[in-house]
Amino acid sequence: MPDAPLVAVLGHGICSDEPVLHADDLGLTRGDGCFEATRIQVDGAGTHVDHLEAHLARFRRSAASLEIDVDDAAWRALLDEVIAAWQQPGEAILRWMLTRGRERGGGPSGVVTVTPLDERTLRARDGIAVVLLDRGHPADAFVERPWLLGGVKTLSYAVNVAAGREAARRGADDAIFVSTDGVVLEAPRAAVVWRFGERLGTTPTDGTGVLASITCDVALAAARSDGVGVDVELRPVDDLFGSDGVWLVSSGRLVAPVTTIDGRSIATDDAWTDRMRSFTTRR
Q1: Looking at the domain that runs over 122-280, which CATH code has it been given?
Q2: Do 124 and 253 touch, CB atoms closer than 8 A?
Q3: Angle between helices 214-225 and 270-280 in degrees, nearest 10
Q4: pLDDT tens digit string along 131-180?
Q5: DSSP secondary structure, 6-35, as one string
Q6: Were both Cys, which of 38, 68, 92, 190 would link to 250 (CB 3.0–4.6 Å)?
Q7: Looking at 10-24, 81-95, 154-168, which range is the least confident one?
Q8: 246: nearest Cα among 264, 261, 227, 231
């Protein structure tokens, strides 16, 4: 089966048909855990994992916010085993998940999977239609409220997935969350980057609840090194309609140019999209 995922369990290694979690695992019953995901590519030059160290650092930060212990050596060994075992040519997503473990105790649980990128994800690189969805809170809702877990990549993704379903109901491919005071936040599973002239911009993470996107950070750092101005600012959502380009940036899609917002066409630029792609894959 060429598209079968690879699965591995912390403390056990790569599995075939063995169970990987207990039914009372708090990651299943309460979404109490965190995860990371990045692109893995196998080609004639070998196997490459995008920005693994940065993703591991964010994983540790998420776990610390949840007060779940991370065994760095065990995770590194398991990820190395999985990366070495994955030999399928092409692009895939390497994902690792940490839960608090079973309700009765016994320590955290961990699972790693590798799954080939699906056609929908790959098609998004050619352009996507998005809708605006109210996130239900102001842009500063997470200031001095660490219990809201702003910027933590938790397993509790039901709202994000529901937003994707709502976008589909409205005839769009994805959504952009907007605060109640009209500020651009993020997409359900991507950062938002915009362009005005020769400057790129994105939303700050401090206090907004926006996840610190590794792919976005890499892209904007590469842009700065090429002399492109970068603004990290609270931007009114209406400004997007007058921008010179908007992209959703994430580990799987890399760069997805936005072609319409709420059915209204916005500016696109193939040359800048190619440039953005080069920024996201800078090594």
Answers
A1: 3.20.10.10
A2: yes
A3: 110
A4: 999 999 999 999 999 999 999 999 999 999 999 999 999 999 999 999 99
A5: EEEETTTEEESSS--S-TTBHHHHT--EEE
A6: 190
A7: 10-24
A8: 261
How long is the chain? 283
Q: Which residues, listed in sequence order, are joined to residue 229 by a DSSP beta bridge?
A: 199
Residues of the chain within CATH 3.20.10.10 domain(s) are: 122-280
CB 101 within 8 A of CB 107: yes
Tell me the C-alpha distance between 179 and 261, whole Å: 16
Instruction: Please state whether the predicted TM-score (pTM) of the whole model is above 0.85.
Output: yes
Distance CA 206, CA 159 (A): 21
Task: Enumerate the CATH 3.30.470.10 domain ranges in the chain, comma separated.
Answer: 6-117
Q: Is 92 helix (H, G, I), strand (E, B) or coil?
A: strand
For 35-79, write each residue's pLDDT tens digit: 999 999 999 999 999 999 999 999 999 999 999 999 999 999 999
